[in-house]
């Protein structure tokens, strides 16, 4: 009897050990800090998670694991680790974790930003690509984007004549919003001084802020019903506001199309045509929600890039001058800066790339999720793990970038590095299947605004240039902490808009 008991106990012990070994082998996560019970490493992140994670990565390595409450998160912090996730294991690592903030959305299942890469998501990406990767289509509406910028430059010139300072970020926001709305719908939706710019700004800023914030309801699931930081409610209200706007815009367009008046040939027409041909996968609700997604994803990212670029140029007047001289060479007799022409300007491109390197517009990309268990390097990461790629840290890694914290556009004149997602040391738009679909459009928008700001004006800061606050506020997009205020001084004698 005793012998039998010993054999039985040994067998149980053996099975337990084997089970433990299997479990251990199954989820051999990358190393990481220990963290507290329940909240995990939440407190270690602080208000600037991209910076805190960069410091932690120095201790724990290129792939590390942190626990944000109940959410296991793997963070990639080197080009190689990013390549492993976004290129080699792209298919498995391209999901999205539905955070609590998104759960209040009326049409969550139709929202591409939140979809895992399923058939509908592929149809939406295809619909976007048809328009966004077609230079002829993008060129066709460049005149409308030009008009938006010219109109605003008139306003800036008047402010200059009156010696009134302007908020460069706010000006950029109104131009970006209208450039985007003209590309999407051939119409303006706001102006610098109008009331509804506040509506858009509040809606977009709210979504970007709450989506970028760590929400206690996500990490401690019992808190979900309480929504203790008011995040789900705020996200819902912002999305509802945008939903009403896009609903109205789509119905107006449908009426226009019924009237047999000439088509606009803009992105909305392109999306409606795609929808007619693919009604099973891409319906009107997808278009309505997609427009809101595009406004959300496209306004703050471009605005922040312009604002950081201008901040750097105002701190480096010699660079501003060099850029103006370059733009000068392609400006036509009519004084117009044409989008198609500035795209080839080397120094302008270098300034934009250097801005995106040093002030990554989406410092941690948009968080990904593993769809199934996956081997990342020597580690085994389970399904439903959140994946962050710290492109902010990668862009400042001293083993890839000389003087990484200095703003030096010249470095991009000497190398072939671009932002298309093949150079993993520089990933402002991400890489792989989830990379930004607007990569062909966004640089056009940034270039036109930036070139116009430096070509037409000198700028006087209210303080010494070396005293500029260059701190950022973390969100889904990295915003400048304090507004960039400056007085424009027109440099051209004649009004050439
Ligand atoms: C400087 C400008 C921009 C930058 C740096 C940027 C960057 C990014 C990044 C990093 C992502 C996430 C990639 C990932 O999840 O791995 C993204 C996604 C996205 N971007 Fe952009 N973006 C910019 C402008 C725009 C514009 C103008 C639009 C709209 C016209 C746009 C639309 C989108 C959309 C819809 C997604 C989600 C794609 C998906 O989830 O499949 N972006 N962008």
Automatic annotation (TrEMBL):
Cofactor(s) listed:
heme
Is the keyword Secreted assigned to this protein? no
Indicate yes or no for the key word ATP-binding. Answer: no
Q: CDD domains per the record?
A: CYP76-like
Domain of life per record: Eukaryota
Going by the UniProt record, its keywords in alphabetical order are: Heme, Iron, Metal-binding, Monooxygenase, Oxidoreductase
SUPFAM superfamilies cross-referenced by the UniProt entry: Cytochrome P450
- Which annotated residues bind heme? 436
State a single Gene Ontology molecular function.
Answer: heme binding
Query: What family is this?
Result: Belongs to the cytochrome P450 family.
Name the record gives this protein: Cytochrome P450
- The organism is Tagetes erecta (African marigold)
- Show the taxonomic lineage: Eukaryota, Viridiplantae, Streptophyta, Embryophyta, Tracheophyta
């Amino acid at each position: 009897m005793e012998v039998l008991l010993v054999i039985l106990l040994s067998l149980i012990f053996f099975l337990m050990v084997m089970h433990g070994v299997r479990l251990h082998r199954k989820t051999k996560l990358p190393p990481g800090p220990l963290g507290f019970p329940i909240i995990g490493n939440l407190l270690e992140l602080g208000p600037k998670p991209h910076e805190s994670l960069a410091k932690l990565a120095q201790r724990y390595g290129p792939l590390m694991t942190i626990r944000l409450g109940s959410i296991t998160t793997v963070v990639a912090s080197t080009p190689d680790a990013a390549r492993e996730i976004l290129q080699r294991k792209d298919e498995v690592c391209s999901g999205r974790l539905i955070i609590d903030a998104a759960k209040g959305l009326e049409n969550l299942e139709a929202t591409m930003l939140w979809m895992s890469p399923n058939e509908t998501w592929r149809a939406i990406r295809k619909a976007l690509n048809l328009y966004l990767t077609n230079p002829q289509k993008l060129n066709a509406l460049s005149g409308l984007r030009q008009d938006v910028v010219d109109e605003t430059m008139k306003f800036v010139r008047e402010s200059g004549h009156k010696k009134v300072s302007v908020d460069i970020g706010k000006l950029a926001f109104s131009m970006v919003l209208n450039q985007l709305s003209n590309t999407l719908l051939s119409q303006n939706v706001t102006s610098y001084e109008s009331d509804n710019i506040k509506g858009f700004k509040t809606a977009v800023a709210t979504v970007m802020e709450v989506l970028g914030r760590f929400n206690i309801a996500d990490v401690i699931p019992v808190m979900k019903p309480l929504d203790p930081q008011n995040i789900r409610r705020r996200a819902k209200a912002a999305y509802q506001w945008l939903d009403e706007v896009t609903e109205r815009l789509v119905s107006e367009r449908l009426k226009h199309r019924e009237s047999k008046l000439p088509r606009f040939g803009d992105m909305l027409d392109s999306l409606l045509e795609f929808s007619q041909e693919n009604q099973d996968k891409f319906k009107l609700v997808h278009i309505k929600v997609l427009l809101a997604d595009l406004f959300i994803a496209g306004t703050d990212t471009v605005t922040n890039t312009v604002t950081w670029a201008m901040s750097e140029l105002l701190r480096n007047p010699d660079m501003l001058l060099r850029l103006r001289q370059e733009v000068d060479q392609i400006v036509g007799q009519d004084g117009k800066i044409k989008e198609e022409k500035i795209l080839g300007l080397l120094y302008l491109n270098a300034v934009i790339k250097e801005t995106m390197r040093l002030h990554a517009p989406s410092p941690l990309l948009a968080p990904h999720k593993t769809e199934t268990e996956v081997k990342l390097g020597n580690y085994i990461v389970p399904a439903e793990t959140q994946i962050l790629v710290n492109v902010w840290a990668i862009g400042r890694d001293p083993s890839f970038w000389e003087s990484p914290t200095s703003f030096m556009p010249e470095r991009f004149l000497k190398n072939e590095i671009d932002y298309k997602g093949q150079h993993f040391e520089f990933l402002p738009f991400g890489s792989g299947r989830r990379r930004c679909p607007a990569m062909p459009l966004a640089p056009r928008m940034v270039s036109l605004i930036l070139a116009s700001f430096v070509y037409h004006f000198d700028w006087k800061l209210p303080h010494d240039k070396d005293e500029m606050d260059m701190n950022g506020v973390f969100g889904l997009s990295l915003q400048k902490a304090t507004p960039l205020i400056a007085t424009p001084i027109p440099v051209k004698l004649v009004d050439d808009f």
